[in-house]
Design a protein that fits this description.
InterPro entries: MetI-like (IPR000515), MetI-like_sf (IPR035906). By secondary structure, the protein is mainly α. Helix content is 70%, strand content 0%.
Length: 360
Amino acid sequence: MGAYILRRLLLVIPTLLGIMVINFVLVQFVPGGPVEQIIAQMEGGGDVFESFAGGGADVQVQTGANERYVGSRGLPPEFIAELEREFGFDKPPLERFLNMMWNYMRLDFGQSYFRSIGVTDLVLEKMPVSISLGLWSTIIAYLVSIPLGIRKAVKDGTGFDTWTSGLIIVAYAIPGFLFAILLLVLFAGGSYWQVFPLRGLTSDNWEDLSLIGKAGDYFWHIALPVIASTISAFATLTLLTKNSFLDEIKKHYVMTARAKGLSESAVLYGHVFRNAMLIVIAGFPAVFIGIFFSGSLIIETIFSLDGLGRLGFEAAVARDYPVIFGTLFIFGLMSLVVGILSDLMYVLIDPRIDFEKREG
């Protein structure tokens, strides 16, 4: 197992490098860099994309050494050259990429172009919101999916299995943002009941509350966003649990256990559960990372939560390259490490699994 882990760790390096290379190259062809953003704002154009959409007569593409930016008319070339030096664009792309990766290897992710804060500090500042959404959504999904999936497997083909499958399909089909808006309208003072707060992760007086009060206030604020992000997450896990149990129930060792006179509960939870839950429980890290990374932007926007989803979107719009590439490197590394942890979970739950023999 040690050799397998070492090989996987070594594969992290070229995989992460490939991710960074592809995204760095793609960014070079995307119009509207940070220099153009600043020029557009100074020219009174607001956002640089308004210029690309077809601005006024002053908008043109200039091809001089220091005047190749849209909307740079009237600005001195020295000023534009100074902006290039400040952002590091006076160097060739290859040199900028190598310098960036060298800094990342030393865990130096630089500073945001448009915020007076380091990328690491910025990520740590936004992390609690995304961790809250990802962690609680994953836990709730498992708490609902495993008992429901087991029950559906035991009652396979019955009325209970049929109507719960219908509910799962409906829940899976509802977009998360639409359900989030529905929750706001119903329970956050939209048109009906003011039960939950409309925005934020905590109240303004959170620091003055007791420990129990802080915990209650936190869960009060996070309830609706978590429910909105979980509504479709448990569908796949429920069906996965059900199918896994059905496969195990049909095996010979289950019939042998029943023939020995063991109760159905003892057979189900003493023999079937561990084998059936292998793929479900071992996939917990991957499920958490999936919920952590995906689908959080709209939920964060609707509930006015300042998390990593909004951070990534705002950085992409503003062309804040240190934030874009810094978060890409951090989250890419996290995803690759979590993949290794998922494999270790399989071995921990079922020692019979040997990845080295499978590779051989």
